[in-house]
Amino acid sequence: MTNSAPDTTDHTKRGAYNSHRERQRKRILEAAGKLFDERGIDRVTVAEIVNTVGIRPSTLYEYFSNKDDVVWALVADLFADAVASAKQTMDAADTALAKITALLEFMADQLANSRPAVRFMAEFDAMYARQWSPERLLSLEAQVSPGGFKYFRALIRQGIADGSLRPDLDPNLTMHAVINAVVGAQRRLASLGNRVEVEYGHPIDRLFRETIRIILLGLRAPDPPQRHRKRKRTS
Q: Which of 7, 50, 90, 121 is 20 to 30 A (C-alpha) from 79?
């Protein structure tokens, strides 16, 4: 009796099919993201996304139920990429203050290098406030970054213990306040762009980095007081 080689035909076909679906999904999201940035989420229709990609409407509905699902899929992908990149940057730092600094510098790089994505998230925020539930966003955050809030609490406690952060910070509140302030500034600056530069006379990247600098100054533990040594008199 001889052993026959395993039949890999079905496996190969499944792999090719899955790769095709992933490419198709990516094409839809890239086209939608570009349209959203050019015209605004509210003004873009499913028909326009379909025409831009060059597919039938039925093909899009194999992947997404409606335009809302397209928007949320873009948010999920952007969020997952940001979490992975930020974690890699923060893991390389030693103290809690250095980790927070790395996170905020990562957000500054986002503003400088990925402005369309930041503008999209600013528009998403406005729509989220009007028509989507907090539960949907919390569910997404839990999928992409399980235990995210616990990590922030632990980070503040770590900073108080290692002496890099102020001892009077609230582990349950501080990072929530910091993230909301920084995200709000980042998305506002990305949305208004050169209008802010004309109004304040500085590039938005410089304004944002100054915001970060001030926040970090507020988090940093104060330097220990200098002890003044008395000079001995010499006769």
A: 50
Residues 74-92 have pLDDT tens digits of 999 999 999 999 999 999 9
Q: Residue 41's Cα: distance from chain center in Å?
A: 19
Portion of the chain with pLDDT greater than 90, in percent: 79
Two tokens, residue 160: 């108080």
pTM, to two decimals:
0.84
What whole-number distance in Å separates Cα of residue 158 and Cα of residue 171? Answer: 10
- Residue for token digits 């402005």? 115
Mean pLDDT across the stretch 122-133?
94
| Region 68-219: CATH code | 1.10.357.10
CA 55 to the chain's CA centroid: 30
Q: Which is nearest to 199 in space by CA: 207, 141, 183, 80?
A: 207
